[in-house]
Amino acid sequence: MSGPGGPGPGGGKLDINRAGVAELEGALSGIGRRRARGIVRKREELKGFNSLDDLLHVKGITTRILELNSQRMTCRRRPSSEEAARVLAEEEEDVSAPWEPERSGKGSPGSGPEADGSPEQGAQESVSSRAHGEQQEEEEEEEEEEGSCYSEEGEDGSDVYFYYTIGERWIDYLQRTEEGGLLRHVRPKMKRKSENGLDGRALSPGKKLCKGSEYSRTLGACMPSPTTTFGDLRNAKPGQARRRRIPSVAPPPELQDWLRTFQRWSGPEKLLALDELIDRCEPSQIKYMMQVIEPQFQRDFISLLPKELALYVLSFLEPRDLLRAAQTCRYWRVLAEDNLLWREKCREEGIEEPLNLRKRRLLSPGFMYSPWKFAFMRQHKIDMNWRSGELKAPKVLKGHDDHVITCLQFCGNRIVSGSDDNTLKVWSAVTGECVQTLVGHTGGVWSSQMRDSIVISGSTDRTLKVWNADTGECVHTLYGHTSTVRCMHLHGNRVVSGSRDATLRLWDIETGQCLHVLMGHVAAVRCVQYDGHKVVSGAYDYTVKVWDPESESCTHTLQGHTNRVYSLQFDGTHIVSGSLDTSIRVWDVESGNCLHTLMGHQSLTSGMELRDNILVSGNADSTVKIWDIKTGQCLQTLQGPSKHQSAVTCLQFSSKFVVTSSDDGTVKLWDLKTGEFVRNLVALESGGSGGVVWRIRASNTKLVCAVGSRNGTEETKLLVLDFDVDLK
């Protein structure tokens, strides 16, 4: 690079070679040998830079830095030898003076005369003696780390100029900014104490020389500090304009002078000025500032985190919020499609299986969709169909003439209905066809159980029968009871039956053998539960009994009810019994103690369901209550203007909904958590004039209702409502 008349910012190579060092040494002949030796020590660092690749020889410069800045780099001329000599001569005159960091805002070494004509300050203390050479070099290294750092930018903010001076420790080192992107200079400079005794840095980090200053005019463009300014943040964002422009407003002529004045102030002075300025702004101007400032401090911290941590953070979001997050950007969508993340969301909702779509045409090519997310989305759509979807015309299954449907089972796509016409019928829930009629009982069928293709029925003819639902064949007829078989419960290959003869019997349905007889009740057994280990029975003798079927012994007799026990629930730990005395009692199966007495109903509790310590009870008083059996607290009462107008006959509940049926001819849907009425799923035209819904059974996607009447106003039939979604 040439001398003082060399190329400017537009080009020119920085060429600081050995010849230049010799020239400089000649110009500095008046300076002591100590300083000359200092220059020699630095000689090996004063290399010529003929290309950007040569910068890789400078400590701290990497290929990545050059890639990031290759479009923004040009060179500035170096100072002439006379300039460097003058600076060092002044430094030599003051070599004995104590040196302190230069005060902020007072200029910079090498910048020439100030605007007010004051002399230029010295640059930095040199090595004072050979004896202290090593110590001084260490101090110099520390001073380099603590020195002011700044880059030189062009007027348009697009170019970075590498300005090198030659003098003892007047060598610029290139480093990365704290953000790791832009190049900057580390130029340590020191200044002796001023005459008034105050000292400070010439340019401390975070400060920026204003345009038009003497330093700027001497060296070229303004040189912002390495601390990123707000303007740098705005300009660094891709696709964003350099600054907001106020349309149709010309800049005031005093604007640049005002900005220069602001730039010369110290940090606290700037804050004070800003505080005063804000107080004088109108609300609309403050709003404008907020619109400019707030977006710059928004950070996509999710994209900055390791994937594992990002997924952990997202795991705390609700599924609805995850779906919204997926619309933020492509990377967020990739995270929001994580299969394990959606598996946990599905398990929280009770979804146990992922959904794998065979028709891949639905999926975008090259993008991995989560099968668990599909399962969750499908369930969400099903829930919405239950809650607010269009109620399509139900399938109508007719077959028991005008008889009462006394029991109803629904599993998979198979429906089994039992009637007092002595038969059971097997229906397809998909087509609505009656695929089998199970004939063999000589009395009305009053109880039934089903597992896969096996159906067990109990009748007033005092027998149980085991049927193959696929073929309609009666596999076994179980004899032993001496009165109507009123209730039963199937677990595995064993079924326990309760009869009006006050006994219970345990049967093996594969062999047809009676394994055990449980005797102890003194009145008809009305309800029974069996978990494979213990049998729990409720009877018209006002008691609940806990049995060990293997020893045929009664381990507990639970006394407390003052009327017949009509309903039971048993989860292996707690027994819940409902009675005609209007109360519901919660018992501990191991100790036999009554834990809670649930009061609130006004009549017979005809049906109950228990799941995860949540009990839902239906009563003849036309209300439904939701209880927490751990605390004995009534969480919700399903009533209000839309409540049932007659006795509740049956109920089912899931994690979100409660479905109830009544003698008033309706089937109602309620929200489990809030207790709010959602809508009527079935409303018979004959409701209130004889039409009733006797039984209901529900799966995730279907609802089966057994309806009819006792006075001929409603034909006996099954209604099948479908809430499934079409994924085609």
UniProtKB/TrEMBL annotation:
Comp. bias (Acidic residues): 136-155
F-box domain span: 299-345
Pfam families: F-box-like, HHH_3, WD40
UniProt source species: Apteryx mantelli (North Island brown kiwi)
SUPFAM superfamilies found in the cross-reference section: F-box domain (SSF81383), RuvA domain 2-like (SSF47781), WD40 repeat-like (SSF50978)
Gene this chain is encoded by: LOC106497746
Segments of skewed composition (Basic and acidic residues): 79-89
PROSITE patterns: FBOX, WD_REPEATS_1, WD_REPEATS_2, WD_REPEATS_REGION
Signal sequence range: none
Superkingdom in the source lineage: Eukaryota
Keyword vocabulary terms for this entry: Repeat, WD repeat
Protein name: F-box/WD repeat-containing protein 7-like isoform X2
Statement: the UniProt record of this protein carries the keyword Calcium: no
WD repeats by residue range: 412-437, 438-477, 478-517, 518-557, 558-597, 598-637, 641-680
Residue segments, region Disordered: 71-155, 221-247
UniProt keyword annotation of Repeat present: yes
